[in-house]
């Protein structure tokens, strides 16, 4: 039996009591049994048609009112309902913004690039923007028009202006991604630090570390310089950015040696040879995603508290991504073996 003392508010940290999550934790454990896991995904992959594959999704209570061809809308609706349900039942609803920031980031990137290319998305932003962020699409459109993103988290608001100006000046869409992606991660870290939760900190740190490891490897492999790396890497993970900078001009073996002293080495070592020998990064990307699932699974043995709540939320997002991969592949007629190769580990 797992026992822990109540968490108390210390130095401005937000108080979170495990016992406040008793009912929600119990409800989530029941919901987890309905999630689409590896077995159900393989059933979808082996289905004769995409329509038949989608029946597995609706049997799990997802997208019942949607046609299989509109699976994207069904998945967005499912995630929206999940966020709303957890926020409504949680004593700390603001905490879930940590996981909504990435949608703000996606919407900002879409909007800023569309505006620069004179795309019609300005008139109908909802078409390409995901309605899961902390700020709705119309407010972001008005923010771009007025040059005021004050409705966003401060780091994201500042990054939005910087990204807009950089694109206008340098006409390099990649810079928009770099500026916004870094701001998303640093916003997640800043809000997570307000909660005295080791698990939340670990989850957000792992997000940042994995993103930074991915960026380091991509940037080093394509021969971009140290200055660009410094622009890309986010602060706030468990591996200080200075360690990446120190290792950038050294060999990949030196970098792997550093990783081996962290929790990431054992998880990613299976891709080391491909990384340094310029092989495909598909297995490396898969191992990165699988590591994040392994972090979620650490909460399995905690009966109640924010840990099972957060794990369930991220697991639902991973579930949506897995369904998306399978449905898009089935509709496109991709070979079942190829679809299986693309799948990541699942929480369920």
Explain the layout of strands and helices.
Layout: H1 22-32, H2 38-46, H3 50-59, H4 71-89, H5 97-116, H6 137-146, H7 154-170, H8 173-192, H9 198-222, H10 226-232, H11 241-247, H12 252-259, H13 264-268, H14 272-276, H15 282-297, H16 306-332, H17 336-342
Helix pairs in contact: 1-16, 2-3, 3-16, 4-16, 5-6, 5-7, 5-8, 7-8, 8-9, 9-15
Structural description of this entry:
This protein is mainly alpha-helical and 348 residues long. 64% of the residues lie in helices and 0% in strands. It contains 17 helices and no strands. It has helices at residues 22-32, 38-46, 50-59, 71-89, 97-116, 137-146, 154-170, 173-192, 198-222, 226-232, 241-247, 252-259, 264-268, 272-276, 282-297, 306-332, 336-342. α5 runs parallel beside α7 and α7 packs antiparallel against α8. The longest helix is centred in the C-terminal third of the chain and has 27 residues, at 306-332. It starts with 21 loop residues before the first helix and ends in a 6-residue tail after the last helix. Residues 1-12 have low confidence and may be disordered.
Short note summarizing the structure:
By secondary structure, the protein is mainly alpha-helical. The chain has helices spanning 22-32, 38-46, 50-59, 71-89, 97-116, 137-146, 154-170, 173-192, 198-222, 226-232, 241-247, 252-259, 264-268, 272-276, 282-297, 306-332, 336-342.
């Amino acid at each position: 039996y797992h026992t822990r003392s109540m968490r108390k508010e210390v130095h401005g940290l937000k108080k979170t009591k495990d016992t406040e999550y008793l009912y929600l934790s119990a409800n989530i454990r029941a919901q987890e049994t309905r999630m689409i896991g590896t077995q159900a995904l393989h059933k979808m992959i082996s289905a004769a048609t995409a329509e038949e594959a989608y029946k597995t999704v609706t049997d799990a209570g997802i997208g019942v009112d949607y046609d299989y061809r509109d699976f994207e809308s069904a998945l967005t609706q499912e995630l929206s309902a999940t966020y709303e349900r957890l926020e409504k039942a949680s004593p700390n609803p603001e905490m879930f913004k940590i996981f909504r920031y990435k949608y703000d980031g996606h919407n900002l990137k879409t909007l800023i690039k569309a505006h620069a290319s004179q795309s019609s998305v300005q008139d109908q932003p909802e078409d390409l923007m995901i309605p899961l962020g902390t700020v709705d699409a119309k407010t972001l459109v008005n923010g771009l028009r007025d040059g005021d993103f004050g409705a966003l988290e401060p780091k994201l608001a500042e990054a939005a202006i910087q990204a807009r100006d950089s694109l206008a000046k340098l006409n390099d869409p990649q810079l928009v991604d770099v500026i916004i992606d870094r701001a998303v991660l640093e916003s997640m870290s800043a809000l997570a630090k307000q909660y005295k939760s080791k698990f939340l900190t670990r989850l957000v740190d792992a997000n940042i570390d994995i993103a930074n490891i991915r960026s380091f490897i991509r940037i080093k492999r394509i021969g971009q310089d140290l200055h660009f790396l410094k622009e890309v890497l986010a602060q706030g993970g468990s591996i200080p950015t200075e360690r990446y900078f120190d290792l950038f001009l050294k060999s990949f073996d030196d970098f792997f040696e550093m990783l081996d002293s962290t929790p990431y080495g054992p998880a990613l070592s299976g891709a080391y040879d491909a990384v340094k020998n310029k092989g495909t990064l598909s297995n490396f990307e898969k191992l990165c995603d699988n590591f994040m699932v392994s972090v979620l699974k650490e909460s399995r043995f905690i009966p109640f508290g924010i840990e099972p709540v957060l794990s369930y939320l991220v697991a639902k997002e991973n579930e949506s991504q897995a369904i998306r991969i399978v449905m898009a592949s089935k509709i496109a007629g991709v070979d079942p073996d190829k679809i299986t190769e693309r799948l990541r580990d699942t929480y369920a």
